[in-house]
Amino acid sequence: MRLPCAWLLALVSSASTPSPPSTPPSPPSTPPSSWRRVELHVHLDGALATETLLVIAQRRNLSLPLAGGGGHRVPRSAAEIADLLAATTPAWRRFDVVNDIVGGDAAAVRFAAEAFADRQRASEVRYTEVRYDPVRLQSSAYAPGDALTGDAVVAAVAAGLRARTDVVVHQILCAMRGSTAAACADVAALAARAAGRARGGVVGLDLAGDELRYDNAAYVSCFVDAGALGLRRTAHVGEGFGNLSSESSDMYSALATMGVDRVGHGYAAGQNGTLNATLVGLLRSRGVHLETCPNAALREEALQPGVFRSIAAFREAGLDIGLNTDDPATYFGNCSLASVEDIARDQLGFTDADITAAYDRACAAAFGECPPRS
Ligand SMILES: [Zn+2]
Fold this sequence. Notes:
There is one protein chain. The protein is 42% helix and 14% strand. The chain is of the alpha/beta class. Helix 8 links the parallel strand 6 and strand 7. It binds zinc ion.
């Protein structure tokens, strides 16, 4: 395949960034079975390096705003993109910058997925499920003429994940709080159409977004129906955004009504280290895995003191928990699974055996086929 000139120029200017494949991918191989890390909760648009965003922006000739005003131009360095992201507040709006750089263009989406798979390989992650909002990646405010269907977005992500044949990464599609029940149903239908256990395929549905403003009510039927479609389901609930009462209710409805197989975060079940007997009883009776994210919980202490200690309480109670980065990019959580392990070990009392057990439990709770550890 001959690469377009823009790709070549961008790659020359960013030697550390992974390059797109020049040949069709080889048949999948198996990552080293000695790699113990398994990650089930990480966002594609929360994990992209500024170097990756630079390659995509230059290749697409995207004119981005300059940090601090002063107009727009095609970025000349990763630092320029880092400055734009740093100047974008509140921090969650940085997701818009990332999605507007990547969205609407199949080659860009594929390249982002390849870069993500490279990141997981570099972190020695044996199995990953990466999640994203397929609606948000269909368009770009920086390139209003570009557009993809949801199916094209999913296909581009799959192509990127499959291009890296020595890592196992699957997709989870996120329905977003704040969108309508019909929009949730559309994402569920897309997930069902694209579902497949082959590497890179869609293996589940998630509910993400602003839990504080949008509770579960609008999405309960969508998730029940998604179960009838055969989809495995997880949801961001009980995350610790500042309203323990409503977040506990969300977690209850997710477990008791929506039928989730896993919970993203779920700190409401152990606020301040005190276990909520009702929620913990449901977690145990239904065998639900908690996708904990210690680095994110540490940052959420500012919003809801006590969320971080919940993870130690979960470990002490022997609950089914895993360890994840959530949004590891430098301009979000600025973390890695290695640094998450340090937090768990140094601040939450995890032993090395606890960390290994968390990864093994995540492997057992995977929606796709998690390769066994040696
Ligand atoms: Zn998350």
